[in-house]
From TrEMBL:
Transmembrane segments: 12-35, 41-58, 70-91, 111-137
Keywords: Membrane, Transmembrane, Transmembrane helix
Name of the protein: Transmembrane protein
Domain of life of the source: Bacteria
Keyword Transmembrane in record: yes
Biological source species: Luteimonas cucumeris
Length: 139
């Protein structure tokens, strides 16, 4: 019977679990900071890319294009979740709704309109840079 060696790297399961937890936590942090400062904080996308690549690396996922792709997709998901949360928080607060309550009522097309209105060229540049950084750090 084969026994794993003590130096064996963990499987992809740990890396994906860390990525999921890290992504959700980072998106929540981004939403809280943006709602507190009343700004979209597009530069946080770069930190999200670093977070995604770090979670995959800490989880033991092997280097390569698979890890780079996963880090990039996770960064896109963090950006989407954060922007959706920011839009929901901004629109729900005047109605007395908590951010997670307004997210349930916020439709996709309305959220996309709010994200386009809230993010200027600088924020979109930060987001584009974050995707490139995620791919580079993830490889």
């Amino acid at each position: 019977m084969d026994h794993p060696t003590p130096n064996a790297r963990p499987g992809h399961g740990l890396a994906l679990l860390l990525l999921l937890i890290g992504s959700a936590g980072f998106a929540a942090l981004w939403v809280l900071l943006a709602l507190y400062s009343n700004r979209p904080l597009g530069w946080m996308a770069v930190l999200a890319a670093v977070d995604a690549a770090l979670m995959l690396r800490l989880g033991g996922m092997r280097r390569g294009w698979g890890r780079a792709l996963l880090a990039t997709v996770a960064t896109m998901a963090i950006v989407a979740l954060a922007n959706w949360g920011i839009a929901g928080g901004q629109i729900g607060a005047p109605m007395g709704l908590l951010p997670w309550e307004s997210l349930q009522k916020l439709g996709l097309s309305y959220a996309w309109t709010l994200v386009q209105l809230a993010n200027g060229a600088v924020e979109w540049a930060w987001i584009a840079a974050s995707l490139l950084l995620a791919a580079w750090l993830g490889r």
